[in-house]
Design brief:
By secondary structure, the chain is an alpha/beta fold. The protein contains 15 helices and 14 strands. It folds into two domains: 148 residues, Nucleotidyltransferase, domain 5 (2-Layer Sandwich); 190 residues, ATPase, nucleotide binding domain (Nucleotidyltransferase, domain 5), CATH 3.30.420. It is an enzyme of class 2 (transferase).
C-alpha cells in the first residue's frame, strides 16, 4: 500500500510517500514545499536513492502546493510512481483534536465539521491542516484520507492531571484544559524504546523527552500518556527555542501593563521572542548557543543551564507522578544530538537509579542507542522520532479496517 503523509503548516507542506506492507516499509520520496503565498516559493524533493531536486515557482496556496507535489511524485523524470492511481491513501497530521478525537480517524464531512470546531483551540495550525484535506479531496477525490492528531495520545490523561485550577465553568464553556502536543512523537518513541529493550510497553513507566525548537515531556505509564508538559497551547511547560514555557500569570499581566501591550503582542512576546532566544539574545538554535557558551558567553551559559534544569525538574516530577520510572528517553533535534545536555539533565539523578554512561553518550548522535550503564536501574535511551511513520501506520490500519468491513 502506498500512503502519502502530509504535514501542512501555515506556509509550508512537508510530505513523505511510504510503501507499506505487513512487515516493512520504505520511503519512496519525501520533501517539502516552502514559502507558500510568499515570494520565492519552492519545492525541495528527495528521491529514494538520495538524489535531490529543487523546483521553484509561484505557489499561492496549499492546493497549488499539493498539486506540485503530486505532479512531481508521478513525473517521468523525478517521480517514484507511474501515476496518481498508485496512491492508495493520504494521512494528515492535524495539530488539535480537542476532546473530540482521542484516536486517528477516517476523514468524512462530519469529521471535517468537528475539526472546524477545534480551530479556536489552534488558530494557527488547524486551518492549514484543513486546507490540505480540502486540496486532496479536490485533487484525489476517490482516495481515502485519515487524520492523525497531535493531541490524541494525551487524551488518556486523568482529569486531575489535565484540569486547571480555574472556575470549572470556563472549562465547560470553552474547553480550557491541558491538551498536550507532540503526541504522535511521544507515542512512537515510547513504544519503540520498549521494543528495543524487549520490555512490555503495557507494563512500563517511560518519561519521553521531545527536545527540539518546540519541546515537551510526557509521562507514559502502561502504554498511556498520564501527563505532559504542554498545556492548553504549546507554550506551557519547558523552556523552548522561542517560547517562554512555564511563566507566572502575574508576571505576564505585569509585563503587559508596564509595556502597555495587548493580548496579541503578548502572544508574540511569549511565543516568538522568549525562550532561549529571549534569555541569550543570541539565537533559538541550541548549536549556536552551545558554541557561544564554549567561548564563555555568560548569557549562553545561563540559557543552557535554565534549559537543562527545567527538563530535569519535569523528569523528577513525572517519576513521582508514575511512582517510578523504567526508561528516560531523548528525541527531537536537541534530544538526539546534544550529548552535553543529556548528560547534564541526567546528572545527580543517581538517587533514582539513573546512571549515564558518559563515554557511550558522547558518541551517540541521532541514532537509536542505550546510553546508560549496564548497572543503571533506569535505562537512558536516544530514540529518533518518526512521526510520519506513525501517521502512515495509522492510515494503513484504518483504511484496511474499512475495506474489510
Amino acid at each position: 500500500m502506498n500512503i502519502l503523509v502530509l504535514n501542512c503548516g501555515s506556509s509550508s507542506i512537508k510530505y513523505q510517500l511510504f510503501n507499506m506492507d505487513d512487515n516493512s516499509h520504505h520511503v519512496l520520496g519525501k520533501g517539502a514545499v516552502e514559502k507558500i503565498g510568499l515570494k520565492g516559493s519552492f519545492l525541495k524533493h528527495e528521491k529514494e536513492n538520495g538524489e535531490k531536486v529543487l523546483l521553484e515557482g509561484e505557489i499561492l496556496d496549499h492546493q497549488t502546493g499539493i498539486d506540485y507535489i503530486l505532479g512531481l511524485l508521478s513525473s517521468e523524470k523525478h517521480g517514484c510512481i507511474k501515476n496518481l492511481e498508485e496512491i492508495d491513501a493520504v494521512g494528515h497530521r492535524v495539530v488539535h483534536g480537542g476532546e473530540t478525537f482521542n484516536s486517528s480517524v477516517f476523514i468524512t464531512n462530519e469529521v471535517v465539521d468537528k475539526m472546524n470546531e477545534c480551530i479556536d483551540l489552534a488558530p494557527l495550525h488547524n486551518p492549514p491542516n484543513l486546507s490540505g484535506i480540502s486540496a486532496i479531496e479536490h485533487l484525489l477525490p476517490s482516495v481515502p484520507q485519515v487524520g492523525v492528531f497531535d493531541t490524541a495520545f494525551h487524551q488518556t490523561m486523568p482529569k486531575h492531571a489535565y484540569m486547571y485550577a480555574i472556575p470549572y465553568s470556563l472549562y465547560q464553556k470553552y474547553g480550557i484544559r491541558r491538551y498536550g502536543f507532540h503526541g504522535t512523537s511521544h507515542k512512537y518513541v515510547s513504544a519503540r524504546a520498549c521494543e528495543i529493550l524487549g520490555i512490555d510497553y503495557a507494563k512500563a513507566k517511560v518519561i519521553s523527552c521531545h527536545l527540539g525548537n518546540g519541546a515537551s515531556i510526557s509521562a507514559v505509564k502502561n502504554g498511556e500518556s498520564v501527563d505532559t508538559s504542554m498545556g492548553f497551547t504549546p507554550i506551557e511547560g519547558l523552556m523552548m527555542g522561542t517560547r517562554a514555557g512555564d511563566l507566572d500569570i502575574g508576571a505576564a499581566t505585569y509585563i503587559m501593563d508596564k509595556e502597555m501591550i495587548g493580548t496579541r503582542s503578548a502572544s508574540v512576546l511569549f511565543n516568538k521572542q522568549s525562550g532561549l532566544m529571549g534569555v541569550t539574545g543570541i539565537s533559538s538554535d541550541m548549536r549556536e548557543i552551545r558554541a557561544a557558551a564554549a567561548k564563555g558567553d555568560k548569557m549562553a551559559i545561563l540559557g543552557m543551564d535554565m534549559y537543562a534544569y527545567r527538563v530535569k525538574k519535569y523528569v523528577g516530577a513525572y517519576a513521582a507522578a508514575m511512582g517510578g520510572v523504567d526508561v528516560i528517553l531523548f528525541t527531537g533535534g536537541i534530544g538526539e544530538n546534544a550529548t552535553y545536555l543529556r548528560q547534564e539533565i541526567c546528572s545527580e539523578l543517581e538517587y533514582m537509579g539513573v546512571e549515564m554512561d558518559d563515554k557511550v553518550n558522547e558518541t551517540v548522535l541521532g541514532e537509536e542507542a542505550v546510553v546508560s550503564k549496564d548497572s543503571s536501574k533506569v535505562k537512558i535511551m536516544v530514540v529518533p522520532t518518526d512521526e510520519e511513520l506513525v501517521i502512515a501506520k495509522d492510515t494503513r490500519q484504518i483504511v484496511e479496517e474499512l475495506a474489510n468491513r
